[in-house]
Amino acid sequence: MNYSDDTQAISKILSVSIDHVVANPNFAKPSLEAFRNFLLSLQQSFIPKLAKIEHKICSNVTFSQLCEKINCPKKYGFLSLLAISLFSVSSYTRYLWSKRPRLLSDVLALAGPGASCLKLIYSESLSNASLTDDEEYSSSNYLNNYNNNNNKEVISTKDKYKYWVVYWLFYGVFHITDNMVSANTQKALKKYGNKSSNPYWYYWLLKIISIYWAGYNNGNITLYQKAVIPCLRKYYELSTKKQN
To answer: Which of 3, 31, 87, 94 has the most beta carbons within 10 angstroms of its beta carbon?
Structure first.
């Protein structure tokens, strides 16, 4: 990606810095391979998005005029705005984690997957699938095409909908247990007096990790292939035996 010196200075500095760090011979060690891959992923995915945001803000007339009035270069103005935003988000996240962990986990559970579902709904339609509902669900190939050792990619619109339905069911299991855990959390707080001794407090951390795995890291596909499909296959086999 080509970076503009005027409206994408911070993004360009970050990208060049990562290039210098990765080019260092010391980073060729196997023990630093994970950190090297992390930096490269930032350079390929995060920094281009940051560059677009920086370009929009630095190209804004009001922002440019403000920087001229206070005699501040655009890159430093954007850096200050970025620092303030990160500080505000981190402070509010810490507040939610300490006061409203359920709200934080719900936002994490709904934001990314919800946006993905909206994109899927607007980009494709179920009516454009190659098979009709009757043809798909009446065929045994619906079950036999999925095996437990095959991490196949999402190949159809209907498959995408199935995976996300599995995610919402997975999230629903957590949501059902929230009320019980919330009540026990209040009792434990009164009994132990602090959060570190509360045995139910780590439930929210487990929920956030599980939601991230299922909603942001293709865990819904794993659940579908490892849990749902085997159950459907057993049900299909039992129903076939009864009919015979």
So the answer is: 3
Contact (CB, 8 A) for 190 and 132: no
d(CA 118, CA 137): 25
Residue 112's pLDDT is 79
HSE-up of residue 234 (Cα within 13 Å, Cβ side): 5
73-115 pLDDT tens trace: 888 999 999 999 999 988 988 887 887 777 778 778 877 787 7
Q: From residue 59, how far is each of 52, 76, 203 by CA, in Å?
A: 10, 14, 45
Which residue's structure tokens are 């090297």?
A: 36
* Cα–Cα distance, 73 to 54 (Å, whole number): 13
The more confident residue out of 68 and 111 is 68
Angle at 105 between CA 104 and CA 108, to 5 degrees: 90
Please say whether the beta carbons of 149 and 197 come within 8 A. no
Measured from the Cβ of residue 178, the count of other Cβ atoms closer than 10 Å reads: 16
Q: Give the residue from 156, 175, 157, 158 showing the smallest Cα distance to 214.
A: 175
Query: Both tokens of residue 150?
Result: 């095959």
Q: How far apart are CA 174 and CA 206, in angstroms?
A: 10
Residues 6+ apart with CB under 8 A from 1: 15, 48, 51
Contact (CB, 8 A) for 54 and 11: yes
Nearest to 67 by CA among 3, 6, 2: 6
Q: How many CB atoms lie within 10 A of CB 42?
A: 14
**Mean pLDDT, the chain, integer:** 76
